[in-house]
Specification:
alpha/beta, eight-stranded antiparallel β-sheet, nine-stranded parallel β-sheet, 22 strands
């Protein structure tokens, strides 16, 4: 028999409209998953129930330009918290029907050197939000008093959006669903979430049950037996260097191109057979500086590979390359090129446009130059040939939304005559030898005989160009 006090207590709960039983198990699990997800993102509700954001912060005084001074222009790692104004007070949920206004919130910025942090008033104190680059983890909050701009960077984009939404509510004086934190010093452990470098060199150290720190800028996962790129890596928007060498990766996802800050990509010693066109046409065009594809099974690179024009270092050793992309000369920033021990037969005509510091083509099966040219001239020119030459000569923009895709491919693979004009299917092809010292300061010998020459193909758009350049072919 139940005790009278217990019966009365349960009756009181029913009167207040509260359920006697706890939430269903599936609902509790869903809530827990959401909580864990927020914790992994690096912001949102903390264990104490408050709103926090981990990022880099730079507080810029707007008085500086008037004084002829400049800010140092570098952010520091910080923890941003939404706190109650009154120190020592604790968030208390309002009882049903209890009158009362919203909690008065302030922004607390804590750093490793100043764990107690600096407090900024929020209510009706924000002049403007700058959120153009919020998807890149960047935003700026301009305060009225003091006259400062709080610049945020290297934040998780989803967490940043949630945090800014709460800051907007605090600015308007609206109630914030998440209980506010107290003004207490931040623990040193909070700053460990700012890990920027992680090196994993064995399977047993590879994280399976937890995410990579979102703030990583350098990630190495070698000798881990990976057969594909872990999709969790593609969420690391601050990543600048990715090393996946010595694995068993066969194919690269196109979403690697979404890593907008990626500068170095090391895929040495994998099982790759190609490098996709999608990657060549991604944001890697603007960011990628160093690419290592050594010790794979790549037989050819697409023409679009030459759109990675920021490349300075390219390693292609120990593959099965038969030829370079024939627009190789478009890689104007390339300084280091190594393609030893492949199956190259000749170099493309635009190879002579490179300006390298180091070149290694040792161990390739270069063929001696052909004595007779390959003649594929047509008179008069076909409509396709004439149109293609006009489009390319006048640099008329084109893509698959304007003309058929196969015509785009034809234009992308057009040859360049020694005179600078373009030709599609109507040309003369000749082969000669080139001393590699003409394109590189340091040249590794091509063979064991001490040679530094290699065959190079040249194209001529007309018989006149071929005759005028006949001395070059001798």
């Amino acid at each position: 028999m139940r005790k009278p006090e217990k019966v009365a207590h349960q009756a009181d709960r029913r009167i207040r409209g509260r359920p006697m039983c706890s939430r269903p198990r599936w609902l509790r699990c869903a809530a827990r998953r959401e909580e864990v997800s927020k914790e992994r993102l690096g912001a949102g509700s903390s264990r104490s129930g408050g709103m926090k954001l981990h990022c880099e912060v730079e507080v810029i005084s707007r008085y500086l330009p008037a004084l002829g001074l400049r800010n140092r222009g570098k952010g520091v790692r910080a923890v941003l918290s939404l706190c109650q104004q009154t120190p020592g007070s604790r968030p208390r949920p309002r009882l049903r029907g209890e009158p009362g206004g919203p909690h008065s919130a302030c922004l607390l910025i804590s750093t490793l050197k100043d764990k107690r942090g600096t407090r900024y008033e929020l209510k009706e104190n924000i002049e403007q939000f700058f959120t153009k680059f919020v998807d890149e983890g960047k935003a700026t909050v301009r305060l009225k008093e003091p006259l400062v701009d709080i610049c945020l960077s290297k934040a998780n984009s989803s967490s940043l959006k949630s945090f800014l939404s709460a800051v907007r509510l605090a600015h308007r004086g609206c109630d914030i669903e998440t209980p506010l934190l107290t003004l207490t010093p931040v623990k040193t452990s909070e700053f460990e979430k700012f890990k920027t470098k992680m090196v994993i060199t064995s399977k047993k150290d590879y994280p399976l049950s937890k995410n990579f720190p979102y703030s990583l800028e350098h990630l190495q996962a070698s000798y881990c037996g990976l057969v594909r790129v872990d999709m969790r890596m593609l969420c690391l928007k601050n990543l600048r260097r990715l090393d996946l060498s010595h694995n068993h990766i066969k194919k690269l996802p196109a979403t690697i191109g979404d890593l907008i800050h990626l500068q170095e990509l090391n895929l040495n010693d994998n099982h790759l057979e190609s490098f996709s066109v999608a990657l060549c046409q991604s944001t890697l065009q603007q960011s990628l500086r160093s690419l290592d594809l050594s010790k794979n099974k790549i037989k050819a690179l697409p023409v679009q590979f030459c759109q990675l024009r920021e490349l300075t270092d390219l390693k292609l050793d120990d593959n099965e390359l038969i030829q370079f992309p024939f627009k190789m000369g478009q890689l104007k920033n390339l300084r280091f090129l190594s393609a030893a021990r492949n199956k190259l037969l000749f170099l493309p005509s635009e190879f002579k446009n490179l300006s390298l510091e180091y070149l290694d083509l040792f161990g390739n099966t270069f063929e001696p130059p052909e004595v007779l040219p390959v003649i594929m001239l047509q008179t008069p020119l076909t409509l396709l040939e004439s149109s293609a030459r006009t489009v390319l000569h006048n640099r008329i923009p084109y893509d698959s939304r304007i003309i058929p895709f196969h015509l785009c491919q034809d234009l992308d693979t057009a040859k360049t005559c020694v005179c600078g004009r373009f030709c599609l299917n109507c040309f003369i092809q000749g082969t000669t030898t080139m001393n590699l010292h003409s394109v590189a300061h340091t040249v590794v010998l091509v063979d064991n005989m001490g040679g530094t020459e290699a065959p190079i193909i040249s194209y001529f758009c007309s018989l006149a160009c071929y005759v005028n350049s006949s001395d070059m072919l001798k």
